[in-house]
Specification:
By secondary structure, the chain is an alpha/beta fold. The protein has one domain: Rossmann fold (3-Layer(aba) Sandwich), CATH 3.40.50. The protein has six helices and eight strands. The longest helix has 26 residues. The relative contact order is 0.15.
C-alpha cells in the first residue's frame, strides 16, 4: 500500500518530527514502514538527514507530518543538531536487542533538552520487538527509565509492522493536544492591548494667570 502526497492537500496542523538514536537501531526502517509501507533487510546508513511526509487524520483534523530521519553516527552530530530547532516533537529509538543503544538513550534525551524548545514532546520507541530470543533490554529497565523521565513508550517491529502505525498516531495525538494547550496558555497570558479613543472628551485643565482652558475641549493660551 502506498501513501501519496500532493501539495494541494490542506492541513490543520503541520508537525516537524525528528527520529534520533544510535546508528543501526532501525530509525530508517521504521520511517519507511510508516511512510511507504516498505521494509528491507538491507542496511544502509543514513548520511546526515533524510525525511518523509505523510498526513494523518486525528480527531477530524488533518495533520501533516514532516518526519526527519537523522544519522546516528557521531561525525554527523554537528549537522544533525541544527535540525533540532523548531522541532515539534522527537522520537528516540533504541534497539531491544542492543543494551548499549538503550544506555545511550539518556545521551539523546539530554541532546533534546539542550537543542529543542522547552517542553518539546518526546516519545521513546523500542525497535526490533520481533527478535524476542535476542532481547537484551528488560521491561523493568525500560519502566524505571520512562517513569523517571515521564516518557511515553511503545515497542515496534518494522519487519512485522507491529505498532509502527500506532506509535505515530499516538504521538501525533500528543502533539495536537500539546499544541492546543500551548495555544491556550499563550492566549491566557497575552495581555490585551489598551485601546485609546482619540475622540474621547478631554478633561478641562485650569492654569493660573490669564491663560486657561475655555469651552470644554478647546484651550486658549
Amino acid at each position: 500500500m502506498a501513501f501519496n502526497y500532493t501539495t494541494s492537500v490542506e492541513f490543520d496542523y503541520l508537525f516537524k518530527i525528528l527520529i534520533i538514536g544510535d546508528s543501526g537501531v532501525g530509525k530508517t526502517t521504521i520511517l519507511q514502514r510508516f511512510a511507504q509501507d516498505y521494509f528491507s533487510t538491507e542496511y544502509v546508513a543514513t548520511i546526515g538527514v533524510d525525511f518523509q511526509i505523510r498526513t494523518l487524520d486525528i480527531d477530524s483534523k488533518r495533520c501533516k507530518l514532516q518526519v526527519w530521519d537523522t544519522a546516528g553516527q557521531d561525525r554527523f552530530k554537528c549537522v544533525v543538531s541544527s535540525f533540532y530547532r523548531n522541532a515539534n516533537g522527537v522520537i528516540i529509538c533504541f534497539d531491544l536487542t542492543d543494551l548499549e543503544s538503550f544506555r545511550n538513550v539518556n545521551n539523546w534525551f539530554e541532546e533534546v533538552k539542550r537543542y529543542c524548545p522547552e517542553q518539546t514532546p518526546i516519545f521513546l520507541i523500542g525497535t526490533k520487538s520481533d527478535l524476542k530470543t535476542r532481547r537484551m533490554v528488560s521491561d523493568d529497565m525500560i519502566k524505571n527509565y520512562t517513569e523517571k523521565n515521564r516518557l511515553s513508550y511503545l515497542e515496534t517491529s518494522s519487519k512485522t509492522n507491529e505498532n509502527v502505525e500506532k506509535c505515530f498516531v499516538d504521538f501525533t495525538q500528543n502533539l495536537v493536544a500539546h499544541t492546543n494547550e500551548m495555544e491556550m496558555v499563550y492566549k491566557k497570558d497575552r495581555k490585551p492591548e489598551r485601546e485609546i479613543d482619540l475622540n474621547s472628551r478631554r478633561k478641562t485643565v485650569k492654569h493660573s494667570g490669564d491663560s486657561g482652558c475655555m469651552g470644554g475641549n478647546k484651550c486658549t493660551i
